[in-house]
Amino acid sequence: MSFISDTEAEALGAFLSRRAVLGATAASGLLATPLAAFAQGTAASGPGEAEITVDQARQAPIPIVIPNFGAGLGDQISGVITSDLDGTGLFKVMSGDVAPDGTPDFAGLKARGARAAVAGRALGSGSVRVEMRLWDVVAGQQLQGTAYTASSSNWRRIAHIIADVIYERMLGEKGYFDTRIAYIARTGPRHHQITRLALMDQDGANERMLTGGQWLTLTPRFNPVRDQVAFLSYANNRPRVYLFDLASGRQQVLGEFNGISFAPRFSPDGSRVVLSATRGSGSDIYVVDLASGSKRQITSSGGAIDTSPCFSPDGSQIVFNSDRGGSPQLYIMSASGGGAKRISYGSGQYGSPVWSPRGDLIAFTRIGSGGFSLGVMNPDGTGERILTQGFTVEGASFCPNGRVLAFCRQSASGAGGAGFASGIGTIDITGFNERPIRTSTGASDPAWSPRNG
């Protein structure tokens, strides 16, 4: 979650003080205002379907045998594959010996209840060759046979790629293990935290700090086709959207605006960024072309706050958050602007919308009834489902296949910020299998990368 403390909010001046309800939204594109700010009524009822709370909806996990790939590096590779698959809740990983050569003992595997089995081994040291075979135990046939060769320093990535292959062959959709998550690393006291742009593998390994922490940093967003992240930085006490090149470490301001720019998201083809920028007492949504730097205004708020824009996967529409109707709600409009239609009608106030890569769902944060909820709805506003709730749960980001959401969960704090914790977790879109991602610091604002090339 992108928490904005009272001190940090002051950096935005009169713009935020005018809109307590959307203060944090204006700063970061996320709803993170103290709960008391939302005590003034709820959204009017509308045409949306009745809310559904999903609890432990799931399919039976697939029993699969993952053997040890050998001593040393092979053992580590097996461990990562096991962790990847087991962590989905869709596989029941079983240990056991499966010979890397020849045909497995299908009768023995069936007796153990296995439906699939992997055979594999890791060979070499400086350069490692990892061989893998995937067997359908029920049908008694090989589904996949592949060998991977790379520097031994890339052993974790080989393990993630193998887990992706198993996931795809068994479930019929691409995996998401060979991916990364950009996030905000947080250290220090509750109200004076140092924030740094950071990067890690999707399982929390290979953490890497990208910025030094001198300035408040929020809301990283991955470019879907380039090794590039957009984020909000308060550098030189002027909040603006920056682009960070992951290969070179170079940073540059995105677009020139008279006011504050914030809440960036890339277009599906990576050529544009949609963002919010303050204008007078409100904020509007703009599209910035990365090649030319030209910007185009696509909403005219008339003093309202339009923020948190996100393209649909086909680039034809944008979902965004606005208080134009009196309270923060979700709207969909054409990507060229115009024709905005409200889609959120549940009890409470909505923000932080993000479109699933599949195009079938929009995730959101909702505040009401004394707490935060993380949910999904259909793009027309029907079928709203709450996945998880808490003191603060928000900032959803879909994995590349749309099956899992990363999000931020924060706890309440006592006097002087005691007891406060901020971390990143994942949850399946059906609402089951919520799991934390371990990080070396506090963490918030997760942004899932596309699949690695």
Describe this structure in words.
The protein is mainly β and 453 residues long. The chain has 2 domains: 30-171, TolB, N-terminal domain (Rossmann fold, 3-Layer(aba) Sandwich); 179-448, Neuraminidase. It has helices spanning 6-10, 14-18, 23-28, 73-86, 106-111, 155-171; strands at residues 52-53, 62-65, 91-94, 116-123, 127-136, 141-151, 180-187, 194-201, 208-209, 217-222, 228-233, 240-245, 251-253, 261-266, 272-279, 282-289, 295-297, 306-311, 317-322, 329-334, 341-342, 349-355, 362-368, 371-377, 385-390, 392-398, 404-410, 422-428, 435-437, 442-448. The strands form 7 sheets. It has a 5-stranded mixed sheet, with no helix packed on it. Strands 3-2-4-5-6 form a 5-stranded mixed sheet, with helices on one face. A hairpin with a 6-residue loop joins β8 and β9 (208-209). It is globular, with a radius of gyration of 23 Å. Residues 1-57 have low confidence and may be disordered. Residues 1-39 form the signal peptide. Belongs to the TolB family. Keywords: Cell cycle, Cell division, Periplasm, Signal. Part of the Tol-Pal system, which plays a role in outer membrane invagination during cell division and is important for maintaining outer membrane integrity. The Tol-Pal system is composed of five core proteins: the inner membrane proteins TolA, TolQ and TolR, the periplasmic protein TolB and the outer membrane protein Pal. They form a network linking the inner and outer membranes and the peptidoglycan layer.
Q: Topology of this protein?
A:
Layout: H1 6-10, H2 14-18, H3 23-28, E1 52-53, E2 62-65, H4 73-86, E3 91-94, H5 106-111, E4 116-123, E5 127-136, E6 141-151, H6 155-171, E7 180-187, E8 194-201, E9 208-209, E10 217-222, E11 228-233, E12 240-245, E13 251-253, E14 261-266, E15 272-279, E16 282-289, E17 295-297, E18 306-311, E19 317-322, E20 329-334, E21 341-342, E22 349-355, E23 362-368, E24 371-377, E25 385-390, E26 392-398, E27 404-410, E28 422-428, E29 435-437, E30 442-448
